[in-house]
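Proteins fold reproducibly. Take a tokenised chain:

. . .
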Amino acid sequence: MNEMKQYQDLVINLHYTDICNYRCRFCHSRFGKTPLGLAEWKRIVANIVKDVDVRRFNLAGGEPLAAPFAQELIDHIHGLEIPVSVITNGSLLTPSWIDANRNKLSMIGISVDATDHADNVRLGRINGAGLSLTKERLVELARSIHAAGIRLKINTVVNRVNCHRDFHELVESVRPDRWKLLRMIRIEGTNDHADDLLVSDAEFEAFASRHADCRPVVENTEDIVNAYVVVNPMGRLLDNTGGRYRETPSLLDHSFGEVFPEVAFDRRAYERRY
């Protein structure tokens, strides 16, 4: 059956909600709207799988666990026998939720951009009560993820606040299956108010070099542009060419095959990432 699919072996990132309890200053996944419900996202998923041999659906946000139908969407995709993963800030994760999804999730990614509370405050990685994800809580969640047999990924955006910090102790404590370093990118109209957090080539390369013994996956700016398949909260594919977002028509009303050719997708860059 997969031989009949028009597009092979794609990881599809569903940014199905813009709701988030954090206000990270550098966030480039802030879209301003969450207009669609579970029924619409089931329809979008159906329109995607008609044309795509989906390697995995990756659920993101916003904060994906803040959406009221997060579990229902996970259950739906799992029921299609397609691997599903979640990228979260970790604040809403619990050991019981992790255990309940032990046979449904192939991976849980946690965004960790600071090693202490003060840096989280500077970055906006705090909730309305001023709380951030503590190292102790992160270690507890990591243990639960490992115990559930789910792969753990840590995503770290290298920026002006953390570029001189040492993450060795944190990485050793949580033992991720994959640690990804991403250089902060600037998207016009989304995070261009946070230019003071951008880092130079030398600063990014120095951070990666200092942590080379942790064997991180390193993604510089050129590794990110046109290398993701991203669906925004309005159900539209995104093109991030030239440091700004351009949207396709909605996958609610169009097939993946109709709109994907409008996206500047770099297959070689994609394959380097995955």
Q: What stands out?
A: The first strand starts at residue 7 and ends at 15. Residues 135-147 form the longest helix (13 residues).
